[in-house]
Design goal:
Number of strands of chain B: 11
Mean pLDDT of chain B: 93
Order of helices and strands of chain A: EEEEEEEEEEEE
Low-confidence stretches of chain A: none
Shape of chain A: globular
Helix content of chain B: under 10%
Radius of gyration of chain B: 13 Å
Helix content of chain A: under 10%
Structural class of chain A: mainly beta
Number of strands of chain A: 12
Distance between the termini of chain A: 41 Å
Strand content of chain B: over 45%
Radius of gyration of chain A: 13 Å
Largest interface: A-B, 24 and 26 residues
Distance between the termini of chain B: 36 Å
Oligomer: heterodimer
Number of helices of chain B: 0
Largest sheet of chain B: 7 strands, mixed
Low-confidence stretches of chain B: none
Number of helices of chain A: 0
């Protein structure tokens, strides 16, 4: 069965500092991988996705993620965090086409200190 | 702009009452989904529909029902059989060619 682990429930960083959110997955074949962001009381917005090809993918709002097959990881990074990045971040994994087969992690809550 | 509209945003109900959450999309997507979100548990799939007049149970369908009479609409009914209905409910649709889910802004249901 596929699964996603986000080991950090809460992370606090200072504005301007770099950020890395961890995501480890378990999947039997080449997965589709996603990062979504959720502001309080809102729906989820796609930050970036990996299907194939270059293992370093760029997303919106200056985020990037790197797919490492050997480590079964898809960590999200940002070189310099802004106060507006404070939100909850979800990693998700699924087969081709995603949809109902998509499995979400439990999320990482990011707090940004000014 | 295309998107997903959920209503109401906040809803209160008494125990024993059924309640229906609305979800409408104008993205022309075939597949639609309902998720339940509880603190620390991520998103759990309640029901999904891949085409009009067809829907399937997700991981936590007990106590819920849906219909899909139109492509644009996928309402969710939380019945009195749902033991712990207080939660944040999210509706989504799927862009098939990219696998990307588009989400509504959610409906927060509180049972008094």
């Amino acid at each position: 069965a596929q699964s996603v682990t986000q080991p950090d429930i809460h992370i606090t960083v200072s504005e301007g500092a770099s950020l890395e959110l961890r995501c480890n997955y378990s999947y039997g074949a080449t997965p589709y991988l996603f990062w979504y962001v959720q502001s309080p009381g809102q729906g989820l917005q796609l930050l970036l996705k990996y299907f194939s090809g270059d293992t370093l993918v760029q997303g919106i709002k200056g985020f990037e993620a790197e797919f490492k097959r050997s480590q079964s990881s898809f960590n999200l990074r940002k070189p310099s965090v802004h106060w507006s990045d404070a939100a909850e971040y979800f990693c998700a994994v699924g087969p081709t086409g995603g949809g109902n087969k998509l499995t979400f992690g439990t999320g990482t809550q990011l707090k940004v200190e000014l | 702009d295309g998107g997903i509209t959920q209503s109401p945003k906040y809803l209160f109900r008494k125990e024993g009452q059924n309640v229906t959450l609305s979800c409408e999309q104008n993205l022309n997507h075939d597949a639609m989904y309902w998720y339940r979100q509880d603190p620390g548990q991520g998103l759990r799939l309640i029901y999904y529909s891949q085409i009009v007049n067809d829907f399937q149970k997700g991981d936590i369908a007990e106590g819920y029902s849906v219909s899909r009479e139109k492509k644009e609409s996928f309402p969710l009914t939380v019945t009195s059989a749902q033991k712990n209905p207080t939660a944040f409910y999210l509706c989504a649709s799927l862009r098939t060619n990219t696998g990307e889910l588009f989400f509504g802004e959610g409906s927060r249901l509180t049972v008094l």
